[in-house]
Amino acid sequence: MTLTFVLGNGVSRQPIELTTLRKYGKIYGCNALYRHFTPDVLVATDPGISTEIQKSGYALKHKFYTRKPLPSLGANPIVYNYTYSSGPVALTYASKSDPHTIYMLGFDLCGVNSKFNNVYADTEFYKKSHDGPTYFGSWIEQITEVVRSHPKHQYIRVMAENVIIPGEFHTLKNLSHIPITQFCSDYK
Description:
Blueprint: E1 3-7, H1 18-21, E2 25-30, E3 41-44, H2 47-55, H3 58-61, E4 63-66, E5 76-77, H4 86-94, E6 101-105, H5 137-149, E7 154-159, H6 167-170, E8 175-179, H7 180-186
Parallel strand pairs: 1-2, 1-6, 2-3, 3-4, 4-5, 6-7, 7-8
Helix pairs in contact: 4-5
C-alpha cells in the first residue's frame, strides 16, 4: 500500500518525528516547514513566506509550488486549485497520483485555547502565539472539495484530543480520523 503524508502546520503534529515518515512514503508540506525539514514537495501560497523560500535558494534544489514564482529561482507555478490555501493545495498535489492512503497531519483547523494555532507562531510572516485563531471556514470547504473530488483515495486526518471534526467532514466516506497517539505508535 502506498502512503503519503501531508503536513499542515497545526501544533498537533509536533510529537511526530518527521524524518521517520520518509521510510513509509512521500511527504508534502507547507510554508515555513522548509526551515527545519525538507519534504518531497513544498507548497506556499502567501507572498511573504513564498518569497522567503525562493530567495533562500530552496526552490533551486527542491520541488516547490507557489502562485507567483519569481524568475530564475526554481519555483513551479500552482496549476491545481490555484486559489486554495497552502494546506489544501498540498493535499491536492498529494491526491494527483494513483489511489492510495493519504495521512493529513497538523490539519487542526481551529485555534488552541482561542489562540493562534501554528508551529511557526512568533516567526517572520506568522501571527503571534497570543493572537486570536485564524478563520478556518475556507479550509474546511477546500479540504472537503479535495477529498470529495478524489473518491478512490483514502484520507486519514490525524488529530489531537481537542481538535474539532467539522460537520462537512462527516459526509465524506473516504475521510476518517485517528488520534495522534495511535499514529505515533503505528509510524515510529
